[in-house]
Design brief:
By secondary structure, the protein is α+β, with helices and mostly antiparallel strands. The chain has one domain: Glutaredoxin. About 30% of the residues lie in helices and about 20% in strands. It has a 3-stranded mixed β-sheet with strand order 2-1-3, covered by helices on one side. Helix 1 crosses helix 3.
Length: about 100
């Protein structure tokens, strides 16, 4: 399983997403440090080429488990629907579900 965490500089939520992703990986019995690749997205061209839906974006084997509307790519903040409303990162539970669904 290949996991990437895409982010843009100045994003206040990518560190939260990284922490939650690491916790989710530990929950499903995987070692997070050896699996998660951080990738900075620095230009609008990169964002379009990577289908970057905003910061942070998590890809599991190249797929976004929380797909955003098609064509909504750019250097923006991203929000995720969670049980408690919109948030800057998925919950640990949502990430555990995504990791098990993609396994």
């Amino acid at each position: 399983m290949e996991i990437e965490l895409l982010y843009c500089a100045g994003c206040p939520n990518w560190a939260v997403a990284q922490m939650r992703l690491n916790e989710a990986l530990e929950t499903v019995g995987r070692l997070p440090d050896s699996l998660v690749r951080l990738r900075a997205v620095e230009t609008d061209e990169d964002a379009r080429a990577l289908h970057f839906s905003g910061s942070p974006t998590i890809l599991i084997d190249g797929r976004d488990p929380f797909p955003a509307p098609a064509g909504s790519y750019g250097l923006t903040c991203r929000v995720y629907p969670t049980p408690d409303g919109l948030a800057g990162a998925p919950t640990v539970h949502q990430l555990v579900r995504a990791l098990t669904d993609f396994a």
